[in-house]
Every structure is written in structure tokens, then in C-alpha cells.
Amino acid sequence: MTPQQRAQRCADTMWATDQASQALGMRIAQVAPGAATLTMQVRKHMLNGHGMCHGGMIFTLADSAFAFACNSYNRLTVAQSNQITYLAPGKPDEVLTATATEVARQGRSGTYDVTVIGQDGRQIALFRGLSREIAGTHFEEDTE
């Protein structure tokens, strides 16, 4: 199995039971070892009292991209700590894109940066996620 095939199979396995991301209308645009890109259209029920995308929705999109990136090695991996900086509002009906990239991975710990952009290319948010591997895998692999 190639690293790309492993990353895709991990994403497929996780996506099958990821009710939160699915319920928010997210889509996986791309996955690779240590990386993932997800999209989400800002729908009416995602708007806050200012008529812009609720920060929690933007955080959830970034967190989901982070999750697919750090789980791409067939090791069960969870968030240890996350931080987000909001730069611009998400607009009603626009498609937001969250791109997660691995910054460092050593032992059981990883660091990932996620950039959320609007469909016009403006930066919406910057997210940093710290991950921690736990016992287990997403699927059984042949060791031959």
C-alpha cells in the first residue's frame, strides 16, 4: 500500500462515521499523508446574530481538516490542543475551504496548520492543531 492509498483509506474509514462533518455539509476535496483539504458551504443555519458565519462553524471545518490530515498514517490520532485566529467573516452561501498541512510529527505528537479561505481567496482563519497518537489503527494492514 502506498502512503497515498493509506491516507485515502484512512479518510474513507473515518468519513463513514463522521456524522458531524457530514451534517454540516462538508466535503473532502483532497487527502494525502499529513495533509487534507475540506470544503463547506455557509448555510443559513450557520449564521450568527451579525449575519456572518458563526466562528464555531469555521472552527469545526478547520478541526475536521486537521483530523483528516493527522489521521492519514493509519494511527488513531486525537486533538491535544487547538487554537484559532479569525481574520475575516465567512459570508452567507459562500464555500469555505480549509487546508491542513503537517508542520512537524515526532513520536506520538504532531503539529498541523490549517488555513481557511473564502471563495474569493481571502483568509478567513488560521488554526493550529496539536495532535497525539493513541493506541490502535483505522484498519488492519498486511505486514508482508
UniProtKB/TrEMBL annotation:
Pfam families: 4HBT. Residues 50-124 form the Thioesterase domain. GO terms for molecular function: acyl-CoA hydrolase activity. SUPFAM superfamilies: Thioesterase/thiol ester dehydrase-isomerase. Transmembrane segments: none annotated. It comes from the Bacteria. Signal peptide: none annotated. The keyword Hydrolase applies. Keywords: Hydrolase. Belongs to the thioesterase PaaI family. This is Phenylacetic acid degradation protein PaaD. It comes from Tateyamaria omphalii.
